[in-house]
Amino acid sequence: MASSRFKPSRVRSAIESVGAVGDRSINQMGQFVRDIGGMAYLLGDTLVWAAKGLFYRRLKFGWGSLTDQMVRVGVKSIGIVVLVQAFIGCILALQLAPTLESYGQLEKIADVVAIAIVRELGPLITAIVLSGYAGASIAAEIGSMVEAEEVKALRAHALNPIRFLIVPRFLATTIMIVGLTVIADTVGIAGGLLTAWAALGISPEAYLASTQIAIVVRDFLTGLSKACIFGMLVSMIACYEGLTVSGGAVGVGKATTATVVKSIVAIIGMDAVFTSIFYVFGL
Amino acid sequence: MTMDAPTDDVVISLSNVRKSFEDHEGNDHVVLDSVTFDIHRGETLVVMGGSGCGKSTLLNCMIGEYEIDSGSIKFRTRDMNRLADIATLSDEAFNDIRKRYGILFQSGALFNSLTLAENIALPLEEHSYVDPSIIDIVVTLKLQQVKMLAHRDKMPSQLSGGQKKRAGLARATALDPEILFYDEPSAGLDPVTSTAIDELMMDLSQKLRVTSVVVTHEMDSAFRIADRMVMLDKGRVLKIGNRSDFELLRDANPLELSRSDDRLMNQFLNGHGEGPLTDAEGLSEFEKLIKTSSGG
Q: What is the value of pTM for the model shown?
């Protein structure tokens, strides 16, 4: 019977499912807006406390804490950034070689690798590595402190957690990502150079000469300015996720995962925005 | 319920405090309802009640961690000439009050990246204008008070639960507070260590002449340290009175108590398994299921 195929309960169930998806989407949208607002508020507070720390003598800045975080976020990440960026340089050179060779432009490989690394892949890959390496660890550390009532204890002693916990991590990540990007750029170009020399028969002297002609200071500056913004993004997302942890060890785990996922999405989204701006203004 | 009229020696005054939390489905759950009482200078007030009665929420409201829905929480430190509603204070003004109180958290809440000495020195470095050598002397004194001097350079991870609480107490008293809040000071400790912490609290109260607010559900500890007691149940104040009032209630025959609240408190104070607290209405869904399945 045809009527048995259209049971009212099935129709109702389908409508309820669609409604549930809509309801969930609205909730997620609301949460997204709350998160953006929360992070903007946190960024504002962090910048105010960073400025106060620099300009008011009475407020001790916590240089010890800053250098600790710089070592943790930056120095300890050097190895993995160097490794990843060397592979990126090598992969780029090998992927571009057949296409450039078909146009008889194999010597242009140094130009393309250099511009791709300095303007784009240096800051981007460094930020992604840092989001997994430092971002996750910052979120887990602050989340654990929230769960252990350490953050509450700071507030109870009239000590601002933004000043003591967030400012050093924010500054350390933002400063060190710029330094790491410089290293990443250098290693990426070196990776391309070694690959071109070993596999494509291009001499190191010719490769370096092409690189020097291909990239200008502006390319470095656009790359480093992006890196700086990525550093702020990673640290803000990690700190926000850490500070809003609830639910014990499970909550800390969720915050760590959320930090990595949100950081990568935010970094790539912000990269698209910056690249568009640089393209429009011819930078 | 006894309500105290505000007098000059009141340091904290709670009036009709209401606090609710929203669950995942958007429903409001009232955790504190019309909580009204005063805390007087120099006394040790114990806030007690079963799990989920709202005592920790009340403590968090008092220290400014949670904003209350309605009512007022007022503080008056020695340098203030009147009670001030914390909801109307600026962050800086409330921070000035915070510097006048100390808190011992349930876990100790020591800063894990700092040594014991650094933990105690941190509030002093931030809020006092004294020389580092003086701070070092104060840290030594505070550690001596809690008998933890031998551990001054240890990290919190190297300490036992009882030692963490002692160290937390040393940090809470670092700025010579007027008010000390204790969140479950005996929780998770063996009876000997628990008694030692109680004695330490009483010793500090006498020596420093501080007002103490202790949140606990450990009855032995509560009767040992309290001057006055407040009993909470489902977010409302059942009774506030002197320790002797509660001792009478504890020692009373439940069959002779006419008020249901008195029978409930009698059961709680004696730790009996049977009574109004654990009848069918008072049980959690899980406990009801267990009782049903076991034929009870």
A: 0.81
Of all residues in chain B, what percent are helix, strand and coil, respectively (each to 5)?
Answer: 45, 25, 35
**Chain B residues with CB-CB distance to A under 8 A?**
63-65, 95-96, 98-99, 101-103, 105-107, 109-112, 122-123, 125-127, 171, 175
Nearest CA in chain B to A156: B98
Domain membership of residue A42 (yes or no) is: no
Q: What is the pLDDT of residues B69-93, one digit of tens each?
A: 999 999 988 888 888 898 888 888 8
Question: ipTM of the predicted structure?
Answer: 0.79
Whether A152 sits inside 8 A of B122 (CB atoms) is: no
User: Tokens 């309801």 map to which residue?
Assistant: A23
In whole angstroms, give the CA distance from residue A194 to residue A89: 9
Q: How many domains does chain A have?
A: 1
Residue corresponding to tokens 């949140």 = B215
State the residue range of the domain holding A126. 62-280
Q: Are strands B179-183 and B101-104 parallel, antiparallel or unpaired?
A: parallel
- Residue B65 has its nearest CB partner, among A145, A150, A152, at A152
Tell whether A114 is covered by a domain: yes
Contact indicator for A211, A189 with CB cutoff of 8 Å:
yes
The residues facing B40 across adjacent strands are: B10
H or E stretch covering B182: strand B179-183
Are B95 and A156 inside 8 Å of each other by CB?
no
Instruction: Measure in Å the smallest separation between the Cα of B277 and chain A Cα atoms.
Output: 28
